[in-house]
Amino acid sequence: MKSTIKRAAMSSLALGLVFSGAAIAAVSNEEAAKLKTELTPMGAEKAGNKAGTIPAWDGGLTKAPTGYKEGDTRADPYAAEKPLVSISARNMDQYADKLSDGVKALMKKYPSYRIDVYPSHRTAAMPQWAYDNTLKNATRCKTRDGGQSLEGCYGGVPFPLPKTGAELMWNHLLAWKGQANSMLFRLFVVTSDGKPTMASDGLNEVQSPYWFKDGSLEKFGGDYNNLMLVTYGPPFKAGESILLRDTVDAGKGRQAWQYLVGQRRTRKAPTLGYDTPDSVASGAFYFDEAFGFSGGLDRYDWKVIGKKELYIPYNTNRTWLAKSTDLLGPQHLNPDHIRWELHRVWEVEATVAPGKRHAVPKRRYYLDEDTYTAALADMWDGQGQIWRVGYTLPMAMPDVPGTIAQSFGLYNLLAGTYVLANYPGEKAYQFKQVPPWNENYFTPENLAAKGSR
Questions:
Q1: CB within 8 A of 405, min separation 6: which ones?
Q2: Is 229 left (phi over 0), alpha (psi -120 to 50) or beta?
Q3: What is the model's pLDDT at position 265?
Q4: Which tens digit of pLDDT belongs to each residue from 413-432?
Q5: Contact criterion met (CB below 8 Å) for 317 and 74
Q6: CA-to-CA distance for 227 and 75, rounded, in angstroms?
Q7: Which of 344, 348, 326 is closest to 336 using CA atoms?
Q8: Structural domains in the chain?
Q9: Cis peptide before 401 (omega within 30 of 0)
Q10: Is the confidence at residue 402, as pLDDT, over 90?
Q11: CB distance 328 to 196 below 8 Å
Q12: pTM (2 d.p.)
Protein backbone atom coordinates (compact mmCIF):
# COMPACT_ATOMS: atom_id res chain seq x y z
CA MET A 1 0.00 0.00 0.00
CA LYS A 2 2.78 2.40 0.96
CA SER A 3 4.60 1.50 -2.26
CA THR A 4 1.49 2.29 -4.31
CA ILE A 5 1.05 5.64 -2.56
CA LYS A 6 4.74 6.42 -3.09
CA ARG A 7 4.53 5.63 -6.82
CA ALA A 8 1.38 7.76 -7.16
CA ALA A 9 3.07 10.64 -5.36
CA MET A 10 6.12 10.39 -7.61
CA SER A 11 3.87 10.28 -10.68
CA SER A 12 2.02 13.40 -9.49
CA LEU A 13 5.34 15.12 -8.85
CA ALA A 14 6.56 14.26 -12.33
CA LEU A 15 3.39 15.64 -13.89
CA GLY A 16 3.70 18.76 -11.79
CA LEU A 17 7.25 19.29 -13.01
CA VAL A 18 6.16 18.86 -16.61
CA PHE A 19 3.36 21.37 -16.43
CA SER A 20 5.17 23.90 -14.26
CA GLY A 21 7.94 24.14 -16.84
CA ALA A 22 10.74 22.74 -14.67
CA ALA A 23 13.92 21.52 -16.33
CA ILE A 24 13.21 18.65 -18.72
CA ALA A 25 15.80 16.57 -20.55
CA ALA A 26 16.06 16.83 -24.32
CA VAL A 27 14.31 14.12 -26.38
CA SER A 28 15.89 10.91 -27.59
CA ASN A 29 17.46 10.45 -31.02
CA GLU A 30 14.61 8.09 -31.93
CA GLU A 31 11.99 10.72 -31.15
CA ALA A 32 13.99 13.46 -32.89
CA ALA A 33 14.05 11.31 -36.05
CA LYS A 34 10.34 12.09 -36.47
CA LEU A 35 11.40 15.53 -37.74
CA LYS A 36 12.48 13.77 -40.92
CA THR A 37 9.36 11.65 -41.36
CA GLU A 38 5.90 12.35 -39.88
CA LEU A 39 6.71 15.84 -38.59
CA THR A 40 7.84 18.98 -40.38
CA PRO A 41 11.42 20.16 -39.73
CA MET A 42 9.89 22.61 -37.19
CA GLY A 43 7.99 19.88 -35.34
CA ALA A 44 4.43 20.31 -36.60
CA GLU A 45 2.28 17.46 -37.89
CA LYS A 46 3.17 17.14 -41.55
CA ALA A 47 -0.16 15.59 -42.54
CA GLY A 48 -3.35 17.55 -43.02
CA ASN A 49 -6.44 16.91 -40.93
CA LYS A 50 -8.97 14.17 -41.64
CA ALA A 51 -11.59 16.62 -42.89
CA GLY A 52 -9.20 17.99 -45.51
CA THR A 53 -9.72 21.55 -44.23
CA ILE A 54 -6.09 21.81 -43.11
CA PRO A 55 -3.66 20.75 -45.85
CA ALA A 56 -0.45 18.80 -45.49
CA TRP A 57 2.73 20.87 -45.18
CA ASP A 58 4.66 20.70 -48.45
CA GLY A 59 7.66 22.90 -47.70
CA GLY A 60 5.90 26.24 -47.24
CA LEU A 61 6.04 29.34 -49.40
CA THR A 62 9.67 30.06 -50.28
CA LYS A 63 9.69 31.77 -53.67
CA ALA A 64 9.40 35.55 -53.73
CA PRO A 65 7.42 37.14 -56.60
CA THR A 66 9.36 38.06 -59.71
CA GLY A 67 10.89 41.52 -59.36
CA TYR A 68 10.57 41.70 -55.58
CA LYS A 69 13.15 43.98 -53.91
CA GLU A 70 13.98 44.05 -50.20
CA GLY A 71 11.59 46.37 -48.36
CA ASP A 72 8.91 46.26 -51.08
CA THR A 73 5.28 45.83 -50.11
CA ARG A 74 4.60 42.10 -50.12
CA ALA A 75 1.70 41.11 -52.33
CA ASP A 76 -1.18 38.96 -51.11
CA PRO A 77 -0.35 35.52 -52.58
CA TYR A 78 -3.99 34.48 -52.34
CA ALA A 79 -5.73 37.69 -53.39
CA ALA A 80 -8.09 35.88 -55.77
CA GLU A 81 -9.57 33.62 -53.08
CA LYS A 82 -13.01 34.22 -51.60
CA PRO A 83 -14.09 33.49 -48.01
CA LEU A 84 -15.40 30.01 -47.30
CA VAL A 85 -17.57 31.37 -44.51
CA SER A 86 -18.12 34.57 -42.54
CA ILE A 87 -18.69 34.12 -38.81
CA SER A 88 -20.31 36.68 -36.51
CA ALA A 89 -22.61 36.69 -33.48
CA ARG A 90 -25.45 35.47 -35.71
CA ASN A 91 -23.88 32.10 -36.54
CA MET A 92 -21.00 31.74 -34.07
CA ASP A 93 -22.67 28.85 -32.24
CA GLN A 94 -22.20 26.67 -35.36
CA TYR A 95 -18.44 27.17 -35.19
CA ALA A 96 -17.95 27.58 -31.43
CA ASP A 97 -15.49 24.68 -31.12
CA LYS A 98 -13.10 26.43 -33.50
CA LEU A 99 -13.35 29.91 -31.95
CA SER A 100 -11.32 31.18 -29.00
CA ASP A 101 -13.17 32.59 -25.99
CA GLY A 102 -11.81 36.02 -26.82
CA VAL A 103 -13.10 35.97 -30.39
CA LYS A 104 -16.53 34.85 -29.16
CA ALA A 105 -16.50 37.68 -26.62
CA LEU A 106 -15.71 40.19 -29.37
CA MET A 107 -18.60 38.88 -31.45
CA LYS A 108 -21.00 39.18 -28.51
CA LYS A 109 -19.88 42.72 -27.68
CA TYR A 110 -19.74 44.10 -31.21
CA PRO A 111 -22.49 42.97 -33.67
CA SER A 112 -20.36 44.29 -36.55
CA TYR A 113 -17.37 42.12 -35.63
CA ARG A 114 -16.87 39.09 -37.87
CA ILE A 115 -14.13 36.85 -39.17
CA ASP A 116 -13.86 35.87 -42.83
CA VAL A 117 -12.42 32.36 -43.10
CA TYR A 118 -10.41 31.52 -46.22
CA PRO A 119 -8.81 28.27 -47.45
CA SER A 120 -5.88 27.30 -45.26
CA HIS A 121 -2.31 27.52 -46.58
CA ARG A 122 0.66 26.28 -44.58
CA THR A 123 3.17 28.85 -45.80
CA ALA A 124 5.60 28.54 -42.86
CA ALA A 125 9.22 27.87 -43.77
CA MET A 126 12.80 28.47 -42.66
CA PRO A 127 16.19 28.14 -44.38
CA GLN A 128 17.76 24.68 -44.52
CA TRP A 129 20.48 25.66 -42.03
CA ALA A 130 17.73 26.54 -39.52
CA TYR A 131 16.12 23.12 -40.07
CA ASP A 132 19.51 21.50 -39.43
CA ASN A 133 19.91 23.43 -36.17
CA THR A 134 16.37 22.54 -35.13
CA LEU A 135 17.21 18.85 -35.43
CA LYS A 136 20.27 19.41 -33.24
CA ASN A 137 18.21 21.37 -30.69
CA ALA A 138 15.79 18.46 -30.33
CA THR A 139 18.42 16.42 -28.50
CA ARG A 140 20.48 19.16 -26.82
CA CYS A 141 18.15 22.03 -25.87
CA LYS A 142 16.90 22.13 -22.27
CA THR A 143 15.18 24.49 -19.87
CA ARG A 144 16.50 25.30 -16.41
CA ASP A 145 15.54 27.58 -13.53
CA GLY A 146 12.06 26.08 -13.51
CA GLY A 147 11.62 26.67 -17.25
CA GLN A 148 12.71 30.31 -17.13
CA SER A 149 16.12 29.84 -18.82
CA LEU A 150 17.52 27.89 -21.76
CA GLU A 151 20.74 26.01 -22.36
CA GLY A 152 22.08 24.08 -25.33
CA CYS A 153 19.88 25.88 -27.88
CA TYR A 154 20.93 27.75 -31.01
CA GLY A 155 19.81 28.75 -34.47
CA GLY A 156 16.60 26.73 -34.77
CA VAL A 157 13.29 26.02 -33.06
CA PRO A 158 14.38 25.34 -29.45
CA PHE A 159 11.85 22.57 -28.79
CA PRO A 160 10.45 21.03 -31.99
CA LEU A 161 8.95 18.26 -29.85
CA PRO A 162 7.62 20.38 -26.95
CA LYS A 163 6.55 18.75 -23.70
CA THR A 164 5.82 21.70 -21.40
CA GLY A 165 4.14 25.07 -21.45
CA ALA A 166 7.45 26.82 -20.84
CA GLU A 167 9.03 25.04 -23.82
CA LEU A 168 6.19 26.18 -26.07
CA MET A 169 6.47 29.77 -24.89
CA TRP A 170 10.21 29.71 -25.55
CA ASN A 171 9.38 28.53 -29.07
CA HIS A 172 7.17 31.61 -29.39
CA LEU A 173 9.76 33.99 -27.95
CA LEU A 174 12.43 32.69 -30.32
CA ALA A 175 10.15 32.30 -33.35
CA TRP A 176 12.00 32.68 -36.66
CA LYS A 177 11.90 36.24 -38.06
CA GLY A 178 15.22 36.28 -39.88
CA GLN A 179 18.57 37.45 -38.55
CA ALA A 180 18.01 41.21 -38.55
CA ASN A 181 15.36 43.57 -39.84
CA SER A 182 14.36 47.20 -40.07
CA MET A 183 10.75 48.38 -40.16
CA LEU A 184 9.01 51.75 -40.26
CA PHE A 185 5.74 51.68 -38.34
CA ARG A 186 2.84 53.53 -36.82
CA LEU A 187 0.87 52.57 -33.73
CA PHE A 188 -2.80 53.51 -33.38
CA VAL A 189 -5.05 53.56 -30.33
CA VAL A 190 -8.80 53.67 -30.96
CA THR A 191 -10.69 55.11 -28.01
CA SER A 192 -14.11 54.07 -26.73
CA ASP A 193 -15.76 56.85 -28.75
CA GLY A 194 -14.39 55.28 -31.94
CA LYS A 195 -11.72 57.85 -32.70
CA PRO A 196 -8.29 56.60 -33.84
CA THR A 197 -5.20 58.36 -32.50
CA MET A 198 -1.66 57.82 -33.73
CA ALA A 199 0.22 57.13 -30.51
CA SER A 200 3.62 56.58 -32.16
CA ASP A 201 5.34 56.89 -35.53
CA GLY A 202 8.83 55.48 -35.71
CA LEU A 203 11.44 52.91 -36.60
CA ASN A 204 12.07 49.43 -35.22
CA GLU A 205 15.50 47.90 -35.71
CA VAL A 206 15.71 44.30 -34.49
CA GLN A 207 18.21 41.52 -34.62
CA SER A 208 18.48 38.09 -33.09
CA PRO A 209 22.02 36.84 -32.39
CA TYR A 210 20.37 33.51 -31.61
CA TRP A 211 19.57 33.19 -35.33
CA PHE A 212 22.88 34.28 -36.85
CA LYS A 213 23.52 31.96 -39.79
CA ASP A 214 27.29 32.08 -39.35
CA GLY A 215 27.13 31.74 -35.56
CA SER A 216 27.21 28.66 -33.37
CA LEU A 217 26.11 27.39 -29.98
CA GLU A 218 29.67 27.87 -28.72
CA LYS A 219 29.78 31.52 -29.83
CA PHE A 220 26.22 32.40 -28.73
CA GLY A 221 26.31 34.91 -25.87
CA GLY A 222 22.70 34.52 -24.71
CA ASP A 223 20.92 37.52 -26.28
CA TYR A 224 18.04 36.34 -28.45
CA ASN A 225 16.39 39.68 -29.17
CA ASN A 226 17.92 43.15 -29.53
CA LEU A 227 15.48 45.96 -30.29
CA MET A 228 16.15 49.64 -30.95
CA LEU A 229 12.98 51.73 -31.22
CA VAL A 230 13.20 55.39 -32.23
CA THR A 231 10.07 57.55 -32.22
CA TYR A 232 9.65 60.27 -34.87
CA GLY A 233 6.16 61.42 -33.92
CA PRO A 234 3.78 62.73 -32.82
CA PRO A 235 5.86 65.87 -32.13
CA PHE A 236 5.68 65.67 -28.34
CA LYS A 237 7.22 62.16 -28.50
CA ALA A 238 9.80 62.79 -31.23
CA GLY A 239 13.22 61.52 -30.23
CA GLU A 240 12.07 59.22 -27.44
CA SER A 241 13.91 55.93 -27.85
CA ILE A 242 13.99 52.49 -26.24
CA LEU A 243 16.64 49.78 -26.26
CA LEU A 244 15.77 46.23 -25.18
CA ARG A 245 18.11 43.25 -24.92
CA ASP A 246 16.37 39.97 -24.08
CA THR A 247 18.36 36.93 -23.00
CA VAL A 248 17.85 33.21 -22.48
CA ASP A 249 19.33 33.59 -18.96
CA ALA A 250 16.62 34.43 -16.41
CA GLY A 251 19.29 35.42 -13.90
CA LYS A 252 20.30 38.28 -16.17
CA GLY A 253 16.80 39.11 -17.37
CA ARG A 254 15.77 41.85 -19.78
CA GLN A 255 18.19 44.74 -20.04
CA ALA A 256 16.39 47.98 -20.97
CA TRP A 257 17.30 51.62 -21.49
CA GLN A 258 15.27 54.68 -22.40
CA TYR A 259 16.36 57.96 -23.95
CA LEU A 260 14.30 60.91 -22.72
CA VAL A 261 14.48 64.00 -24.92
CA GLY A 262 13.55 66.44 -22.13
CA GLN A 263 16.38 65.18 -19.95
CA ARG A 264 18.81 64.66 -22.86
CA ARG A 265 20.11 61.49 -21.31
CA THR A 266 19.81 57.73 -21.45
CA ARG A 267 18.72 55.98 -18.28
CA LYS A 268 18.50 52.34 -17.28
CA ALA A 269 14.83 51.32 -17.33
CA PRO A 270 14.29 48.04 -15.44
CA THR A 271 10.50 48.54 -15.42
CA LEU A 272 10.11 48.18 -19.21
CA GLY A 273 8.56 44.76 -18.98
CA TYR A 274 5.77 42.64 -17.53
CA ASP A 275 2.62 44.66 -16.71
CA THR A 276 4.16 48.11 -16.97
CA PRO A 277 2.01 50.15 -19.40
CA ASP A 278 3.87 50.52 -22.70
CA SER A 279 4.80 54.15 -23.31
CA VAL A 280 5.02 53.57 -27.08
CA ALA A 281 1.27 52.82 -27.00
CA SER A 282 0.54 55.64 -24.55
CA GLY A 283 -0.12 52.97 -21.92
CA ALA A 284 -2.87 51.20 -23.90
CA PHE A 285 -1.26 47.78 -23.40
CA TYR A 286 1.41 46.21 -21.21
CA PHE A 287 5.01 45.67 -22.28
CA ASP A 288 4.67 41.89 -22.14
CA GLU A 289 1.66 41.99 -24.48
CA ALA A 290 3.85 43.09 -27.40
CA PHE A 291 4.01 40.51 -30.23
CA GLY A 292 1.41 38.41 -28.39
CA PHE A 293 3.80 37.89 -25.49
CA SER A 294 7.33 39.12 -24.80
CA GLY A 295 9.81 39.17 -21.95
CA GLY A 296 10.35 36.88 -18.98
CA LEU A 297 8.33 33.78 -18.14
CA ASP A 298 8.83 34.02 -14.37
CA ARG A 299 5.56 35.69 -13.36
CA TYR A 300 3.41 32.72 -14.44
CA ASP A 301 3.05 28.97 -14.24
CA TRP A 302 2.66 27.63 -17.80
CA LYS A 303 0.45 24.63 -18.54
CA VAL A 304 -0.10 22.79 -21.82
CA ILE A 305 -3.83 22.38 -22.43
CA GLY A 306 -3.31 20.48 -25.67
CA LYS A 307 -3.60 20.93 -29.41
CA LYS A 308 -6.76 21.85 -31.29
CA GLU A 309 -8.05 23.25 -34.59
CA LEU A 310 -8.82 26.96 -34.40
CA TYR A 311 -9.59 29.88 -36.67
CA ILE A 312 -6.69 32.34 -36.40
CA PRO A 313 -5.41 35.31 -38.42
CA TYR A 314 -3.03 33.93 -41.04
CA ASN A 315 -1.37 34.99 -44.29
CA THR A 316 -2.64 38.49 -43.58
CA ASN A 317 -0.68 40.27 -46.33
CA ARG A 318 -3.79 42.21 -47.28
CA THR A 319 -3.69 44.05 -43.94
CA TRP A 320 -0.49 45.92 -44.79
CA LEU A 321 -1.95 46.81 -48.21
CA ALA A 322 -4.88 48.64 -46.61
CA LYS A 323 -4.94 52.35 -45.86
CA SER A 324 -5.14 53.13 -42.16
CA THR A 325 -8.36 55.07 -42.70
CA ASP A 326 -9.95 51.91 -44.16
CA LEU A 327 -8.42 49.51 -41.66
CA LEU A 328 -9.30 51.26 -38.39
CA GLY A 329 -12.99 50.83 -37.62
CA PRO A 330 -14.68 52.60 -34.68
CA GLN A 331 -14.83 49.45 -32.52
CA HIS A 332 -12.50 46.97 -34.18
CA LEU A 333 -10.32 46.42 -37.24
CA ASN A 334 -12.24 46.34 -40.51
CA PRO A 335 -12.92 42.60 -41.11
CA ASP A 336 -12.57 43.12 -44.87
CA HIS A 337 -8.80 43.43 -44.40
CA ILE A 338 -8.12 40.52 -42.01
CA ARG A 339 -7.71 37.02 -43.37
CA TRP A 340 -8.50 34.07 -41.07
CA GLU A 341 -7.68 30.42 -41.68
CA LEU A 342 -8.14 27.11 -39.88
CA HIS A 343 -4.90 25.85 -38.34
CA ARG A 344 -3.81 23.50 -35.59
CA VAL A 345 -2.65 25.40 -32.52
CA TRP A 346 -1.02 24.62 -29.22
CA GLU A 347 -3.11 25.91 -26.32
CA VAL A 348 -1.08 27.12 -23.32
CA GLU A 349 -2.59 28.51 -20.11
CA ALA A 350 -0.74 30.89 -17.81
CA THR A 351 -1.72 31.55 -14.19
CA VAL A 352 0.17 33.83 -11.84
CA ALA A 353 2.81 31.85 -9.98
CA PRO A 354 2.78 31.63 -6.16
CA GLY A 355 4.50 34.65 -4.64
CA LYS A 356 4.34 36.61 -7.90
CA ARG A 357 2.03 39.38 -9.06
CA HIS A 358 0.68 40.56 -12.40
CA ALA A 359 -2.26 42.76 -13.40
CA VAL A 360 -3.59 39.89 -15.56
CA PRO A 361 -4.14 36.83 -13.34
CA LYS A 362 -4.91 34.35 -16.14
CA ARG A 363 -3.99 34.12 -19.80
CA ARG A 364 -4.45 31.58 -22.56
CA TYR A 365 -2.29 31.55 -25.69
CA TYR A 366 -2.95 29.88 -29.03
CA LEU A 367 0.33 29.11 -30.81
CA ASP A 368 0.33 28.20 -34.50
CA GLU A 369 1.81 24.68 -34.74
CA ASP A 370 3.94 25.57 -37.78
CA THR A 371 5.61 28.76 -36.48
CA TYR A 372 4.86 28.68 -32.70
CA THR A 373 3.75 32.30 -32.98
CA ALA A 374 1.01 33.25 -30.52
CA ALA A 375 -1.72 34.13 -33.00
CA LEU A 376 -4.32 34.88 -30.31
CA ALA A 377 -4.32 35.49 -26.55
CA ASP A 378 -7.27 35.53 -24.16
CA MET A 379 -6.87 37.31 -20.82
CA TRP A 380 -9.14 37.29 -17.78
CA ASP A 381 -9.48 39.73 -14.89
CA GLY A 382 -9.70 38.87 -11.19
CA GLN A 383 -13.48 38.36 -11.47
CA GLY A 384 -13.06 35.70 -14.12
CA GLN A 385 -14.39 37.71 -17.08
CA ILE A 386 -12.67 38.13 -20.42
CA TRP A 387 -10.85 41.43 -20.19
CA ARG A 388 -8.25 41.62 -22.96
CA VAL A 389 -7.94 39.88 -26.32
CA GLY A 390 -4.52 39.94 -27.97
CA TYR A 391 -3.82 39.15 -31.61
CA THR A 392 -0.94 38.99 -34.05
CA LEU A 393 -1.12 39.13 -37.84
CA PRO A 394 1.14 36.41 -39.33
CA MET A 395 2.15 37.33 -42.84
CA ALA A 396 3.61 35.25 -45.68
CA MET A 397 7.14 36.46 -46.43
CA PRO A 398 8.58 34.00 -48.97
CA ASP A 399 11.71 36.14 -49.38
CA VAL A 400 12.80 35.52 -45.75
CA PRO A 401 11.40 32.76 -46.00
CA GLY A 402 8.80 32.50 -43.28
CA THR A 403 5.34 33.29 -42.00
CA ILE A 404 6.14 36.13 -39.66
CA ALA A 405 4.00 38.18 -37.27
CA GLN A 406 5.27 41.74 -36.92
CA SER A 407 1.96 43.58 -36.54
CA PHE A 408 -0.03 42.91 -33.39
CA GLY A 409 -2.64 44.47 -31.16
CA LEU A 410 -5.07 44.23 -28.29
CA TYR A 411 -8.77 44.65 -27.61
CA ASN A 412 -9.67 45.89 -24.12
CA LEU A 413 -13.26 44.69 -23.80
CA LEU A 414 -13.96 46.44 -20.50
CA ALA A 415 -12.64 49.82 -21.64
CA GLY A 416 -14.03 49.49 -25.17
CA THR A 417 -10.68 50.43 -26.75
CA TYR A 418 -8.27 48.67 -29.09
CA VAL A 419 -4.71 48.95 -30.39
CA LEU A 420 -3.01 48.22 -33.71
CA ALA A 421 0.78 48.19 -33.33
CA ASN A 422 3.62 47.89 -35.83
CA TYR A 423 1.49 48.83 -38.82
CA PRO A 424 3.89 49.69 -41.70
CA GLY A 425 1.29 50.37 -44.37
CA GLU A 426 1.71 53.63 -46.32
CA LYS A 427 5.38 53.81 -45.27
CA ALA A 428 8.46 54.15 -47.52
CA TYR A 429 9.34 50.54 -46.79
CA GLN A 430 7.96 47.74 -44.66
CA PHE A 431 9.70 44.74 -43.05
CA LYS A 432 13.17 44.83 -44.60
CA GLN A 433 15.88 42.24 -43.99
CA VAL A 434 19.27 43.81 -43.32
CA PRO A 435 22.77 42.48 -42.57
CA PRO A 436 23.34 42.03 -38.82
CA TRP A 437 24.68 45.11 -37.07
CA ASN A 438 27.97 45.00 -35.15
CA GLU A 439 28.05 44.32 -31.41
CA ASN A 440 28.29 48.04 -30.56
CA TYR A 441 25.05 48.98 -32.29
CA PHE A 442 22.57 47.93 -29.61
CA THR A 443 24.14 49.93 -26.79
CA PRO A 444 22.95 52.78 -24.53
CA GLU A 445 25.50 55.09 -26.17
CA ASN A 446 24.05 54.52 -29.64
CA LEU A 447 20.53 54.88 -28.26
CA ALA A 448 21.38 58.39 -27.08
CA ALA A 449 22.90 59.25 -30.46
CA LYS A 450 19.78 58.11 -32.32
CA GLY A 451 17.37 59.87 -29.98
CA SER A 452 19.18 63.20 -30.12
CA ARG A 453 19.27 63.45 -33.93
A1: 175, 291, 292, 371, 373, 375, 392, 393, 394, 395
A2: beta
A3: 83
A4: 999 999 999 999 999 999 99
A5: yes
A6: 26
A7: 326
A8: 85-451 (2.50.20.10)
A9: yes
A10: yes
A11: yes
A12: 0.93
